[in-house]
Design a protein that fits this description.
alpha+beta, Protein Transport Mog1p, Chain A, seven-stranded antiparallel beta sheet, three-stranded antiparallel beta sheet, 10 strands, transport, small GTPase binding, Ran guanine nucleotide release factor
Length: 203
Amino acid sequence: MPHSFIKARLFDGALECDLPDNFADVSTIREVPDNQEVYLDKDGFTSIIIEITQRVDAPGNGLERDGRALTIHLEELVGDDADGVKVWNTTETQFSHLAESIPAYTLIATQTPKPPHGGADDPSRRSAAPDFTALILTLVRLEKENTDILITINVPHINGAYDEDDVDMALGRHGELIGNAVEYAARIWSSFEVKSWRLFDEV
């Protein structure tokens, strides 16, 4: 079933993109860092985070350099849980309303949490943590502005809330939740616009 989207004004309207209409602006219920916009699925656990960060300097040229920057951002995102992360694919990404000269990349990864201290068979602990979290991470590299934009869609897969038989990343079976997130990402790529480049002077 196709999803409905609304145009979201981000960072006081400096950026705009389409987001699913069943996602809520988290800043209305709790504090969010100034360099982030966070939206949460009202009917599930998926979240979308748009973050403006200082450009990561990585060695190498072109694709090699940008690939390393993407890896650095992913490692910072997952923190101490890096051992449980597997990247399934990485692709170059074109945004419809950004110049073709602006490089962008998207990866799909999964993060499996470490076994809880109480043991994997402790039902209270098992229900508290997702089986795994899928990540769709898009990096936009604005060299002149010395800025990286990160668009992260986090998709926790919690036991009982998804069909395990539908998900086999190794075979390319993403299941409904990740399939939805891929649709959200594609809509962001086609609708994302910078309305005020002065935003990046403030980072």
